[in-house]
Design goal:
Shape: elongated
Distance between the termini: 42 Å
Number of domains: 1
Number of helices: 2
Number of strands: 0
Helix content: over 70%
Structural class: mainly alpha
């Protein structure tokens, strides 16, 4: 069986993934196709 801490960590990862999707969608609404370009530029600096 999984330990409680392992389950909590997995749940937190899922929450962060959902939040990431929501934030990316918001950025896409604001910037359109340029959202991906901005994210890549920030990752590479």
């Amino acid at each position: 069986m999984y330990r409680t801490n392992d389950i909590k960590l997995a749940e937190k990862i899922l929450q962060l993934d959902k939040q990431r999707d929501e934030l990316y969608e918001e950025l896409m609404i604001k910037l359109g196709s340029r959202a991906h370009e901005l994210i890549r530029a920030l990752q590479n600096r």
